[in-house]
């Protein structure tokens, strides 16, 4: 499908709100220090120590009020309160699946809502899937987010806030190194992280800091549809794990499924992947492959996949397609997914099928948002009908 590329809407109402108190959550350590100095709260000499103190309250204890910072003087707490905020954005929907998956719809500002999904422990690691943009400019044909226009990039504050909210909900404060539920962060929610690399990189600096949330860079995976020129920068700036949404083994099919492939074809993508820093058997690239019935799921394609990845330290995630209303594809039959997985397994890649999680709560990328919009639209229509009926009775 040759869908038009949507452009960034930079109208004022869609920008991060610039009035009101400034969120401290999401600032990197140097940014926090600079903010304290530039707002005249501390002098240069004490800035580092103060920033460290605040950092611990924010990311170790998860406080949401300055008054909880008991070793900070009352005067400074009042000054902080006047300029900054620790408030969390509002959760507009929260759903918990029978399998423990939790999905949040979070309202960052008026008309700016994103999804965050917690996928509970698989082999002692639970992952939080965060969004990096509201909507997406790319139009991958199997992806529901791709049908939603890009509203804007999320700020680092808004990305980190997703982690804070999930940890509030899971009762994970103060930070402990044992019994954590969120052990990994995956940038696989709404949006293309490499089109928002500055904020993604800042958010990783904050989340990975070992005196705070402490989810390390090796436990952080950034997924891209293949923005080739940004892959080296991602590696240098974040040192995070790389995931590639591959979905096809030849350019003809990938052009159709992931239209960005027309700009950055598979050969160029593979070159950028091979050059990603520190790749080894303990730091492998994850290749995501969505299983679409009769489209990309033949055994010949499984063999082509193995051939394409030879020589790259790789993991393969076969993702059963999660259908959405009016989606143009079906998920491959389970037997076919298993046969495909067998070929991949025999080539030395272990346990590649990602079990569908949270289907009962619309856990696929971009779905809770549209579902809740639908519910809200039908609720609105019901209220409108009631109001009409009421005014009709009061007029008569
Ligand atoms: N934009 C980035 C990250 C977000 S999408 C990217 O494309 O990699 C995260 C993953 O979910 C991608 O691998 C994407 O291909 C996959 N995905 C999107 N819609 C899906 C669906 N309906 N069913 C299964 N996987 C889907
Ligand atoms: Fe955007 Fe990723 Fe969805 Fe493609 S798969 S439309 S890049 S969010």
Mind explaining what this structure looks like?
36% of the residues lie in helices and 17% in strands. With 396 residues, it is an alpha/beta fold. The protein has 2 domains: 22-85, DNA polymerase, domain 1 (Orthogonal Bundle), CATH 1.10.150; 90-375, TIM Barrel (Alpha-Beta Barrel), CATH 3.20.20. It has a 9-stranded mixed sheet with strand order 3-4-5-6-9-10-11-12-13, with helices on both faces. A two-stranded parallel sheet has the order 1-2. A hairpin with a 2-residue loop joins strand 4 (102-109) and strand 5 (112-122). It is elongated and about 70 Å long. It starts with 21 loop residues before the first strand and ends with a helix. It binds S-adenosyl-L-homocysteine and iron/sulfur cluster. Residues 142-144, 188, 191-192, 223-225, 245, 288, 290, 319, 321-322, 364-365 line the site of S-adenosyl-L-homocysteine (SAH). S-adenosyl-L-homocysteine is lined by residues 142-144, 188, 191-192, 223-225, 245, 288, 290, 319, 321-322, 364-365.
Topology:
Blueprint (H helix, E strand, L loop, with lengths): L21 E2 L5 H10 L5 H18 L12 H10 E2 L4 E7 L5 E8 L2 E11 L2 E5 L3 E2 L17 E2 L2 H15 L13 E4 L9 H12 L11 E5 L6 H8 L2 E5 L5 H7 L8 H9 L10 E7 L7 H10 L5 E7 L13 H13 L20 H29 L1
Parallel strand pairs: 1-2, 6-9, 9-10, 10-11, 11-12, 12-13
Antiparallel strand pairs: 3-4, 4-5, 5-6, 7-8
Helix pairs in contact: 1-2, 4-5, 9-10
The chain binds S-adenosyl-L-homocysteine and iron/sulfur cluster.
Quickly list its features.
13 strands, alpha/beta, about 400 residues, DNA polymerase, domain 1, binds S-adenosyl-L-homocysteine, disordered C terminus, single chain, 11 helices, 2 domains, disordered N terminus, binds iron/sulfur cluster, nine-stranded mixed sheet, TIM Barrel
């Amino acid at each position: 499908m040759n869908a038009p590329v949507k452009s960034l809407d930079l109208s004022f109402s869609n920008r991060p709100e610039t009035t009101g108190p400034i969120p401290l959550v999401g600032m990197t350590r140097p940014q926090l220090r600079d903010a304290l100095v530039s707002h005249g709260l501390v002098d240069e000499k004490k800035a580092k120590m103060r920033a460290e103190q605040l950092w611990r309250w924010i990311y170790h204890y998860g406080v949401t009020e300055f008054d909880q910072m008991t070793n900070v003087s009352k005067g400074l707490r009042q000054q902080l309160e006047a300029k900054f905020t620790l408030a969390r954005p509002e959760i507009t929907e929260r759903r918990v699946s029978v399998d423990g998956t939790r999905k949040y719809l979070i309202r960052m500002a008026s008309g700016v809502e994103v999804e965050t999904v917690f996928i509970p422990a698989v082999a002692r690691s639970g992952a939080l899937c965060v969004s990096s943009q509201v909507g997406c400019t790319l139009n991958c044909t199997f992806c529901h987010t791709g049908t939603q226009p890009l509203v804007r990039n999320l700020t680092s504050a808004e990305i980190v806030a997703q982690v804070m909210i999930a940890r509030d909900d899971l009762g994970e404060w103060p930070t402990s190194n044992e019994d954590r539920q969120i052990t990994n962060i995956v940038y696989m929610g709404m949006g293309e992280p490499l089109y928002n690399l500055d904020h993604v990189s800042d958010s990783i600096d904050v989340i990975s800091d070992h005196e705070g949330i402490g989810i390390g860079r090796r436990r952080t995976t950034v997924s891209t549809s293949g923005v080739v020129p940004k892959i080296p920068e991602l590696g240098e700036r974040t040192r995070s794990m790389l995931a590639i949404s591959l979905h096809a083994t030849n350019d003809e099919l990938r052009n159709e499924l992931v239209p960005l492939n027309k700009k950055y074809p598979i050969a160029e993508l593979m070159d950028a992947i091979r050059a990603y820093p520190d790749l080894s058997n303990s730091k492998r690239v994850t290749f995501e492959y969505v299983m679409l019935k009769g489209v990309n799921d033949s055994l010949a394609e499984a063999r082509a996949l193995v051939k394409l990845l030879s020589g790259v330290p790789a993991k393969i995630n076969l993702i059963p397609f999660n259908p959405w209303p009016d989606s143009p594809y079906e998920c491959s039959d389970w037997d076919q997914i298993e046969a495909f997985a067998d070929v991949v397994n025999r080539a030395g890649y272990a346990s590649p099928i990602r079990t569908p999680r949270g289907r009962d709560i619309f856990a696929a990328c971009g779905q809770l948002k549209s579902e809740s919009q639908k519910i809200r639209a039908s609720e609105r229509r019901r209220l409108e009908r009631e109001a009409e009926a009421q005014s009709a009775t009061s007029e008569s």
